[in-house]
Amino acid sequence: MAEFPRIRIVGLSGLLIQFGNEMSEPANRAAIAFRAAVEAQVWPEVRETSTSLVSTFVSVDLAANAPQELIEKLQALIGTTDWFSAPLPAGRTLWEIPTLYGTEAAPQLEEAAEAAGVSAETAIQELSSARVRVLTIGFAPGQPYTGELPPHWNIPRQQALTKSVPAGALVVAIRQLIIFTNASPTGWRHVGQTAFRTFRPDHTTPFPLSPGDELQFPSVTAAEYEGIVQGDTSGNGGAQRQVLA
Predict the structure, then answer these.
(1) What pTM, to 2 d.p., does this model score?
(2) 85 CB burial (10 A radius; 0-12, 13-18, 19+)
(3) Which of 79, 85, 88, 126 lies at 20 to 30 Å from 204 by C-alpha?
(4) Residue 117: which region, alpha, beta or left (left: phi > 0; alpha: psi -120 to 50)?
(5) DSSP 3-state of 16
């Protein structure tokens, strides 16, 4: 019997469907695709769903609903396809978010480039052309973990924390990029600065990004970035967006 997918009961909160025990593209793909499939079932006992890097969580009141019936439904749904190669849901969004690399705004670009074994110029070229997926949302409201970058970007976190990076900071480690929601300490290296806001509590949709969305971070000059900061009040930070079929 295959170790994954496997279903675990999470207290009285719901059920967790795990597609792996560590981050991988197929396991993340499976978690996102399976969540969409569960949502499409519109099972009355399901309150909401979410995903982590490699798991789908199905929220159910297990004090009011015995788990076995839902486990059987989930097992039947799991058996309908190979979720590790399933297509991602349609209707996701591709975001192109203007990014100022290096300078005093993002002072750890050269350090990160050295750790990845490339020059600062090559780092900008690679990071600004990479197209990464929102793997999950976490740590802070709306904050995306995105990836995966090529293997040479599997750089470790710092041994000590940077005391604070600002909201909109683009940071890198372990083949992933994060846009910070709020000013925060971090062990990830600050390589770019965006004006994109990942949490907008006064908007109808407070989290503009969702797992499965895709992102690119094209490079802009300091003057272009300043123009975006001064002129964009939407929270998008000058980003272009398109719906993915």
Answers:
(1) 0.94
(2) exposed
(3) 88
(4) left
(5) strand
User: Residues 221, 105: contact at Cβ < 8 Å?
Assistant: no
In 3D space, the residue among 178, 172, 216, 213 whose CA is nearest the CA of residue 28 turns out to be 213
- Output the CA torsion 119→121→127→130 (10° steps): -100
Is the pLDDT reported for residue 1 higher than 70?
no
Q: How many residues does the chain have?
A: 245
| Amino acid code (one letter) for 25 | E
- The reported pLDDT for the residue numbered 191 is 98
- Tens digit of pLDDT for each residue in 124-167? 999 999 999 999 999 999 999 999 999 999 999 999 999 999 99
**For 91, phi and psi rounded to 5 degrees?**
90, 5
Interacting residues of 245 by C-beta distance below 8 A, sequence separation 6+: 90
C-alpha 235/C-alpha 241 separation (Å) is: 13
Tell me the average pLDDT across 173-194.
Answer: 98
Task: Give the phi and the psi of residue 36 in degrees, each rounded to 5.
Answer: -60, -35
How many CB atoms are closer than 10 A to CB 167? 19
CA distance 109 to 120: 7
Give the CA radius of gyration of the chain.
Answer: 19
